[in-house]
Amino acid sequence: MGVLTSYQDLKDKVIFITGGACGISTSMAEVFIHQQTKVAFINIEQQPIYSVKWHY
Question: Cα-atom radius of gyration of the chain, to the nearest Å?
């Protein structure tokens, strides 16, 4: 991932994402994690959730 702008007002906020295990939602979760937010996500299908690898 390239250089991102840092938004200090997002630090330590809680973000909840639905459909977070695949597609654009996964990318959104990664960006929010880089902003030092606490991210929770759910997905209707369990299999994609197990394949997400977080490296933070």
Answer: 11
| β pairing state of 14-18 and 38-42 | parallel
Residue 22 tokens, joined = 């695949």
Q: Is the dihedral of CA 15, 34, 49, 54 positive or negative?
A: negative
Contact present, 45 and 21 (Cβ < 8 Å): yes
Within 10 Å of residue 32's Cβ, how many Cβ atoms? 19
pLDDT tens-place string over residues 11-49: 999 999 887 777 888 888 888 888 889 988 887 876 666
| Cβ contact 37:11 at 8 Å | yes
